[in-house]
Structures are given as structure tokens and as C-alpha cells.
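Researcher: Let's try something more involved. This one mixes different molecule types, so please make sure each is placed in the same coordinate frame as the others.
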Amino acid sequence: MDTFFLTISLILSFLALICLYRAIFGPTVVDRVIGVGVVGTKTLIILLLIGFLYKRMDMFVDISLVYAILNFIGVLIFSKYFVRKGVL
Amino acid sequence: MSLLTVSDIIVMAFISVGVFFLAAGTIGFLRFPDFYTRMHATGKCDTLGIFLSCTGIALYTLHDGLSLANILVSLKIMFIAVFWSLGGPTATHALLKSAFKAGILPWTKDGRSVIEWPPK
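Model: All components are placed in one shared frame. Result:
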């Protein structure tokens, strides 16, 4: 099972890496915000799988929970900022 | 390699389908032409992918035995899944609405806009 988790973690890391393309070269600012959000959601799953690999699930699940909440709040703050200031 | 039990196969199926959805969302995010269509790809696929992957991981946490600590960790992982299936669409909707108010027009094939902006 450890091999399976390691493979899935590597696949997710690769997906996060190619999502970073949009976060860097995205045409608009909003594309960059979504890019960071998508990388965050993949990191959430990777953190849980790392918890299995290190046999410390009770610690890594809290980190993952905080990551989910911060990701959500970050996107909300960005959207609020865009409404008030006007984008770009 | 040790023998796979039935629960292991169920967990592997859940996580694999979840990762498939995450990969499909990523491909859509890279290939679609417009901000709104990219948001459509990631907003739906990520929510379902995270829900399925977290369900698989929560099932695998319980395979050591039903102790109190294991059940607590499994409940926390399911809480992440439920939280993200509520919060992901909410964040998508808020970002889309703010981008629409800020004046980004939807993409069309012939380049003509389907709506009038700014509204009179």
C-alpha cells in the first residue's frame, strides 16, 4: 500500500507543478488566483498521503484541515478585494 | 508484495477515481480558452476529486482496528471532505461574481459579446 500512496503523491505533485504554469503566466490576475487555489487543493491530498507514509496521521490531518480553511478564506479575501478595487 | 484485501482494493479504487477527477480538472484548467471556462473545470472536478480521495483515505485509516483515535482521525478527514464540498463551490461562486462585476467578458467563438457591458 505504501508504494501506491507514494505513486499517487508523485502524480499529484506533477499535477500541481503543471498548474503552476497558469499561476505564473496566467493572462489575468484572476487566473493566478485560481491557479494558487488549485495547487492548494492538491497539496491537501498530498499532506494526507504523507501522513500515511510517515505513520503520523494524527498530526498531518490537522495540518491538512488548516490548509483547507486557509485556502478557502484566501480565495474569499481575493474576491472581496477585486469587487472593491476593480480588477487589473 | 503482500496480499491485497478487499478493503485495500476499495480504498485504491476511491483514491484512483479521485485522482482521475483532479487530473481532468487540471487538464481543463490548462487547455480552456477563458477565465470562466477554466473556473468551470476546476470548480467541479476539484470538489468531487477531493471528496472521493478523502473518503478513500478515511476508510484506510480505519484498517488498523476500530480504536477511538482511529475513528477520531477518520471523522476529521471526513470533515475536511464535507467542508471542502461546501466551501469549494462557495469560493468559486464568489470569485466568479467579483470577476463579472469587475468587467471581464465571457469568451465566445466569433468574438462577439453575448451581453452588454457595462449595463445601461
